[in-house]
Protein: HTH lysR-type domain-containing protein
Amino acid sequence: MDLRQLRYFVATAEELHFGRAAERVHIAQPALSIQIKALEDMLGVQLLSRTNRVVTLTEAGRLFLKEARRTLEQAQHAAVVARRAGRGEIGRIEIGYSADTSYSGVLSGVLRQYKRRVPDVELGLHELHPSTQIAQLLEGRIHIGFIANFVDSPTGKLPPELDAIRLAEWPLRVALPADHPLAKRSRIPREALADEPFIVYVGSDIEQDRSLIQMVIGFMPRVAYEVRSGFSIVSLVGAGLGVAIVPSSVSSVSIGEHVVYRPISGNTTQVGTDVVFRRDADDPAVVNFLEIVQPDQHDTKGKRHRGT
Structure:
């Protein structure tokens, strides 16, 4: 049984006339009769009762007609689904993001724009440390990563399998308890932080996380607490448990006005927000996502940037 035979049968069952049915499906009447007979032989049951002038449905034919219509409708729906998936209009994209990208508004802005244009693609969202995102991109567990990284980091080369599109860059700030003596200053010298307890954001590579902070402040921080979310960093700073180095995008988090953010004297290091993806990404939904992120680029892979 194939879909063509089902279409022939449905046309004949609805017309109850072989000549009109043959015209409707654009084949010769003898060929239509042969296909209907082949269908009946395969099923082992008579579907149509034929006389010289009258064609009627048998009881088996009446019931088969209902199922044949459903099958053809489902087949048509399946074809529509396949075409839409091929255009990237439906499917699912797994997206990783670091906390800094959510605070900055970059993540929400891109996702809002994408969902307005492609509302039927499901988005799986996962808050992950940048190094974890890199690992999961390489493993194929996520398709897209929104990663905040130190722009000038000497260890920030992406693996060759990955590429990135730069979305924004943010200067770094010191997050201080509002009642901290240094909070009265408009700019914080790096040496003034030498004896401060630090709250640091850690992922799968703790040594790398600390070395990046060392690059910014010029010395290895005295770590008081290690946390795994940006919100936790600000919460602990607000509790007076230490200071932290954060991008200026986090300054929107006030924790009841218990935290202030100050620039660091002599620091030019910035945090960039990148969309990171596999160079060989060919899922149409992912390709569409990258085109929306960078609509003015003919090459959806964008310009290569440093990763985390």
About this structure: Residues 59-86 form the longest helix (28 residues). Residues 92-272 form a domain with the D-Maltodextrin-Binding Protein; domain 2 fold (CATH 3.40.190.290). DSSP finds ten helices and eleven strands in the chain. Residues 297-308 have pLDDT under 50 and may be disordered.
